[in-house]
Amino acid sequence: MNQLSDRINNLSTSQTLAMAAKARELKAQGKDIISLSLGEPDFNTPDFIKEAAKKAIDENYSAYTPVDGYVELKEAICRKFKRDNGLDYTPSQIVVSTGAKQSLYNIAQVMLNDGDEVLLPAPYWVSYVEIVKLSGGVPVEVPTSVETDFKMTAEQLEAAITPKTKMMWFSSPCNPSGSVYSREELTAIAKVLEKYPNIYIVSDEIYEHINYSGTFCSIGSIPGMLERTITVNGVAKAFAMTGWRIGYIGAPEFIAKACTKIQGQVTSGANSIAQRATIAAVDADSSAIKYMVDAFHRRRDLVIGLAQEIPGFKLNVPEGAFYVFPDVSYYFGKTLNGVEIKNADDFSMYLLEHANVATVTGDAFGNPNCIRFSYATSEEQLIEALRRIKEALA
Ligand code: PMP
Ligand code: GLU
Predict the structure, then answer these.
(1) Same domain for 307 and 241
(2) Is 1 a member of any domain?
(3) Which residue segment(s) compose the domain that 253 sits in?
(4) For the whole model, what pTM was predicted?
């Protein structure tokens, strides 16, 4: 008999983590797998951040921290929001959590009642849909396609709103499409939202710095939006700190208080040493991480160039993050090396088995025509991976 709760039985496993685990397992068996599955920088955490952590250990930052984070960190985050995003937050509006993933989970838990609808422009990041469902919410996908650079228009947004719509969650730069919403596009979206004052927005800006477009706009900086926006960010991606597990939000104070309340019962707050290190990260000038962003930019150009040569791949040019998200539906219904490709899951499995390259199916991101490659790996690996893929599809 299944002893587990309906809640967990109804939850899907994270496809990004599952594919990464599968690639690791095959590697351990001696297979020469190139993993383009997990979105994780291949750089080490910069030395100045590591130094801050070492100092924190020596200075005995070993006790419980305030549940919502050290005051010095929350003040540094306020400075960052002001400097980079033009957002005016006070420390009482900031909550530091165990990764942006936990920030998102907190938000869902404190904002959603059973049946509340959450609009998710698709493709969306894999965990949004499950976090929303886990919290009783109903994900409502707003589909987009490669033809429109995977961006939701203001008209599409308006058409998807119902009396039950409670929130809209999106990421820009977007994981998985790499699309970056311009100020004009966000202003048009904000104009629609003006008519629906009860809808709250989650703006996931974790790829803010990994952005080649030259511009970045936080929706909270558009007049009227800050009061209803929860700005989510973290240090995992830009500072190569995925394992340190620090994320944070800026939010209306009543939401920040609620997130602190839940965190007080569930984690007691984020890791003390990682919080001290994060002060150094968020206070840093963006020149400190430019070498990583430049490397991602070069790899983006490299991968796009190589992927465009593969017959049947339809691509947008991602302006941020470190993913490419080709539409591979050209292959559906075809048979490759005796394997029938019915959908993106089959295609991704085919690449794993016949090209030894791990990717993630677009289904996990709400787009069944695509697959996702992460290019957060070396240029040699990328060249070899794309060569293998091309060969396996020839
Ligand atoms: N949002 C997006 C769009 C992401 O890609 C990730 C990647 N992990 C997260 C949130 C969660 O970040 P963290 O590692 O800080 O939990
Ligand atoms: N955000 C990364 C990704 O999408 C890391 C994996 C995860 O947190 O799910 O691949």
Answers:
(1) no
(2) no
(3) 47-285
(4) 0.96
